[in-house]
Amino acid sequence: MRIVQLSDLHLRPAPLCSGVDPWLAWQAALARVAGLDPAPDLLLLSGDLADDGAAPTYARLAGSLAAAGWPHALLPGNHDARAALCAAFPGQGWTDENRLCRRVDRGELTLLLLDTLVPGEEWGEFGDAHRAWLDAHCPDGRRVVVAMHHPPCALGIAGMDRIACRGGELLAGWLAGKPQVEAVWCGHVHRPVATVFAGKMLLTAPATVHQIALRDGPLAWTAEPPGLLVHDLAPGFPLRSHYLPVAAAPVVPYAD
């Protein structure tokens, strides 16, 4: 099974502060996904889908995903608006517009999608209600991944660490008692980062638009290439996650 994670689309009608046209960047990302072999079984969009939280933006994204044809699961990020997102994607199976958490079962894997959005804030939050939801939806006897927009720990970029997910210690305590959870997948950081959190592999996805600079000092963007993550799962093997730039390069066989 293959899950492709795309994050931080920041879709809006006008170019972003970096000069990137987010819709052109999104189409390039979809073209890259279309060239994968094998094709994805699921697209995971891990937040900040719209930069403006506007209903027309989500409607256009819904049309784009419907045309692409792959099953997809969505997470809200700090730039998203829950009500408009729900209205555009009624098939996502969310039952509570106040918290867009969702369990997704694919093959032997269960994805637990956590909504960490705090309206009006850039930082996210994991609290007792999230933990109760996890307790109610985390299965035994299956392989499990937790997905959330805001990473629940510091990653070494001060500006992003200030707006990470608060309540990470509560999530860490829950994860410590869940050996079936193999990884935590996040967005928000606009660059790929790998670390260990509560004994689990934690990965953040690059953005489809500009990236966040890896540097000390104030938060800054950089024109490093956009990218995506490809997560592959096979029975009897651990999860494998690959970083791919959106821009495809020629594939040349080695000569005999």
Mean pLDDT: 96
Strand content: 25-35%
Distance between the termini: 31 Å
Q: Which overall shape is indicated by the principal axes computed on the Cα atoms?
A: globular
Describe this structure as you would to a colleague.
The chain has 256 residues and is of the alpha/beta class. 22% of the residues lie in helices and 26% in strands. The protein contains six helices and 15 strands. It has helices at 22-34, 55-68, 82-88, 128-137, 158-161, 168-176; strands spanning 2-6, 42-46, 72-75, 102-106, 109-114, 124-125, 143-148, 165-166, 181-186, 193-197, 200-204, 211-212, 221-222, 227-232, 240-245. Strands 4-5-7-9-11-10 form a six-stranded mixed sheet, covered by helices on one side. It has a five-stranded mixed sheet with strand order 3-2-1-14-15, with no helix packed on it. The protein is globular. 39% of the residues are buried.
Which secondary structure elements does this structure contain, and how are they paired or packed?
Blueprint: E1 2-6, H1 22-34, E2 42-46, H2 55-68, E3 72-75, H3 82-88, E4 102-106, E5 109-114, E6 124-125, H4 128-137, E7 143-148, H5 158-161, E8 165-166, H6 168-176, E9 181-186, E10 193-197, E11 200-204, E12 211-212, E13 221-222, E14 227-232, E15 240-245
Parallel strand pairs: 1-2, 2-3, 5-7, 6-8, 7-9, 9-11
Antiparallel strand pairs: 1-14, 4-5, 10-11, 12-13, 14-15
Helix pairs in contact: 2-3
What does this entry show, briefly?
With 256 residues, this protein is α/β, with parallel strands linked by helices. It has helices at 22-34, 55-68, 82-88, 128-137, 158-161, 168-176; strands at 2-6, 42-46, 72-75, 102-106, 109-114, 124-125, 143-148, 165-166, 181-186, 193-197, 200-204, 211-212, 221-222, 227-232, 240-245.
